[in-house]
Design goal:
Blueprint (H helix, E strand, L loop, with lengths): L11 H7 L4 H6 E8 L7 H9 L7 E6 L5 E7 L5 H19 L4
Antiparallel strand pairs: 1-3, 2-3
Length: 105
């Protein structure tokens, strides 16, 4: 039996594709940051710098609000995507974190 701690580490691109997000859309993701809607992010600028470290080229930033877990965030992308797709990507990330990483449900 495989437990959550035994599972293979996947990249966010692989997780998004596995969860049904279009591969081209998934590969556009550079990184993300998120926080609970009632919390103020600490050192957001430094965190963004860390996310983008080593990235070369244009960066598109999408503000996102999760539909299930009361989170808000920023997606950093290579290519633009609609607000609906950005929200779907963010929801997929948050669902994965909550249900498969943190297992709080």
């Amino acid at each position: 039996m495989t437990t959550k701690s035994d599972s293979t580490c996947l990249t966010w691109h692989e997780i998004l594709i596995k969860k049904g997000i279009n591969p081209e859309t998934s590969k556009s993701l550079i990184g993300f940051t998120s926080w609970n809607q009632k919390e103020i992010p600490n050192k957001l600028g430094k965190h963004i710098t860390d996310i983008l470290q080593g990235n070369i080229g244009k960066v598109i930033v999408k503000d996102v609000i999760g539909t299930k877990y009361n989170d808000i965030g920023l997606l950093f992308l290579n290519n633009d995507m609609s607000e609906d797709i950005a929200t779907m990507v963010f929801d997929t990330i948050m669902e994965y974190e909550q249900e498969e990483v943190y297992d709080i449900l």
